[in-house]
Write a structure and sequence with these properties.
By secondary structure, the chain is an alpha/beta fold. The protein has 3 domains: 6-187, P-loop containing nucleotide triphosphate hydrolases (Rossmann fold), CATH 3.40.50; 192-229; 233-348. It contains 16 helices and 7 strands. The longest helix is centred in the C-terminal third of the chain and has 22 residues, at 270-291. The model is unreliable at 1-11 (pLDDT under 50).
């Protein structure tokens, strides 16, 4: 997976699809030896935040003598260990690693806790073991509890000289302004389908399948890679889209009942709820495209009859309001707003005249 662009030293090459400006910015910092103590990489789930952070860490830790210090060799022991998540100077904390450390599989685990941040602060105080710099990656940063954010802020205010902290967040606004102000911000936008298609073909995916997956990915290379490796990913998305259409098409009362049930089950089905909300976003986006007369850009073609009916009954303006309310719900959930409250507010903002005759 590579992105090609024009940097200070010509062509740049990281195993990233798209995001050329972000890659060039980080590479320039490495070449100039002006790496920041903290970065905040923000963007939708699957857009490439983890991959960008991993390539950044490889470039900082690769010990091989090479013409461009910003491009890791990718094959040495250090680079392979960063790939596997076993390099001693590259540490990642996330909801998943927190659950493993807690050894409480039945716990809610919907937010990064102050204990996780305290452990990270202790790690930040250590000197590098093999590389010249330690890289601490905080995934799911948008779920940091208030006390955890305050604790992290102390480290950002007094950063160790040989540490870079990289926050990965689906929604940067869920973080305190004081945290955002102490990080160099990198915002990742959806990747064009052509870049995703080319990346998939480069990994050996058949051209036709790559083209179809690139469209379904909706700008998320991570989803495309997972779907290419596991057909179940695509099937689960199709099922999520079906649930999304059914929820949207239901009446006001049924919508609220679904919102309440979904909110009450959020702690146990967090990933599924987020997948369903992303599917709802995709449906409303397609409704807007159809209502705006550009149906050729729609993503969920198997659901086009339903989407066309929704577009006819709502119109562009109401669909835009519904899309915005769904985005707000996602942001609220990532900011630990009460799930039932966030979901009820979302459906109450949806247009009401949606039933098909």
């Amino acid at each position: 997976m590579e992105t090609l662009g024009s940097g200070e030293n010509g062509t740049v090459s990281w195993r990233v699809w798209g995001h050329g400006a972000a890659v060039v910015s980080l590479q320039r910092a490495i070449r100039a030896n002006r790496v920041s103590h903290a970065y905040l990489i923000a963007g939708a789930e699957g857009v490439g935040k983890r991959t960008l952070a991993q390539n950044f860490a490889q470039a900082l830790c690769c010990p091989v003598d090479r013409p461009d210090p910003a491009i890791p060799c990718g094959v040495c022991r250090s680079c392979r260990r960063v790939d596997r998540g076993s390099h001693p100077d590259v540490q990642t904390v996330s909801l998943r690693t927190q659950a493993v450390a807690a050894e409480k599989p039945g716990s809610k685990n919907t937010s990064l806790t102050i204990d996780t941040v305290r452990s990270l602060r202790s790690s930040a105080a250590l000197r590098p073991m093999e590389a010249t710099r330690r890289v601490l990656i905080v995934d799911d940063a948008e779920t940091l509890q208030g006390a955890a954010q305050e604790a992290l802020l102390k480290t950002l205010e007094e950063p160790p000289p040989t540490v870079s902290i990289v926050l990965l967040a689906n929604d940067a606004e869920a973080l305190l302004p004081t945290i955002r102000s102490r990080c160099q911000a990198i915002e990742l936008h959806p990747v064009g389908s052509a870049a995703i298609e080319a990346g998939l073909v480069g990994t050996g995916v058949d051209g036709g399948a790559a083209r179809e997956l690139a469209v379904l990915a909706a700008g998320r290379p991570g989803w495309a890679v997972r779907a290419a490796a596991d057909p179940g990913v695509r099937q689960r998305q199709a099922e999520a889209v079906e649930r999304a259409v059914a929820w949207i098409e239901s009446g006001p009362y049924e919508r609220l009942v679904t919102a309440v049930r979904t909110g009450d089950g959020f702690a146990k089905k967090r990933d599924e709820v987020f997948a369903d909300l992303e599917a709802i976003l995709g449906v409303w986006r397609d409704v807007m495209l159809v209502a705006g007369g550009v149906a050729r850009h729609a993503t969920h073609l198997p659901q086009m009859p339903a989407i066309e009916a929704l577009a006819e009954s709502t119109g562009l303006a109401e669909a835009a309001v519904a899309l915005a309310s769904t985005r707000r719900c996602l942001a609220d959930l990532e900011a630990n707003v009460r799930p039932r409250l966030a979901l009820e507010g979302m459906v109450l903002a949806w247009p009401t005249m949606l039933q098909r005759g």
